[in-house]
Amino acid sequence: MKKLLALFVLLLASVPASAVTYSYTGSPYTVTLDFTACVLGNCANFTATDNVTVQFVTAQRLPANLVFSDIGPLVTSFTASDGLTTYATGDANVRVHTVTVSTDANGAVTDADITVERWQTAGAVHALGDRFDFFQITPGFITQAFHNASCSGIGVSPAGTADTCLAAVADTGISQGNGVASAPFAILAIGIATQVPTLSEYALILLAALMALAAMASMRRNGHTRS
To answer: Is residue 85 packed enough to be buried (19+ CB in 10 Å), middle (13-18) or exposed (0-12)?
Structure first.
């Protein structure tokens, strides 16, 4: 009996949680600033139809009642776009500068402070003056995106990412897009396991077995079992 109870507890603890996908769509840029002279880097301009979009996946729903907390360790994958540059997990040129969010009692994202960068040149170590692109989602879900910025400071980001640009210089080759406040992150999907019995079904099966065994043990103690 004790072994079965232990098995029941282990089952409750070992069933994996479902992955959750969070999605954000920023408003189209209301202000765009074009580059004026392209001397270095990959120059391009944003348009009024461009915007910031982000999707990230966590192994389970985010904890409740976070207040601009770092969720980097909880994110298993992400993809984003600012209209000109794509940022994604596995891209060796991408650097996560900041990824903090606030959540409500149900783990829904209610505010965010996120900055993600992408170097225009490959390499694990970059130098001052190297060009990069980046976007920001600031508190209130206001977005900004910058293309072909010149880096003026490199180090470890607040999110713990090495070789991150920590400061930029605006020169004639940079372009910018600014969006106004938009709707918060939405829970786009919650992963569903393949068609196997769910936790509740397993629990009910084990509970029924435990009850049957308990009844049999009681009958034996009372001398009512058949020979």
So the answer is: buried
Which of 154, 64, 171 lies closest to 109 in space, CA to CA? 64
* Three-state secondary structure of 72-139: HHHEEEEEEECCCCEEECCCCCEEEEEEEEEECCCCCEEEEEEEEEEECCCCCCCCCCCEEEEEEEEC
* pLDDT tens across the length of the chain (227 residues): 555 445 444 544 444 558 999 999 999 999 999 999 999 999 999 999 999 999 999 999 999 999 999 999 999 999 999 999 999 999 999 999 999 999 999 999 999 999 999 999 999 999 999 999 999 999 999 999 999 999 999 999 999 999 999 999 989 999 999 999 999 999 876 765 434 444 455 555 655 666 666 666 666 666 654 44
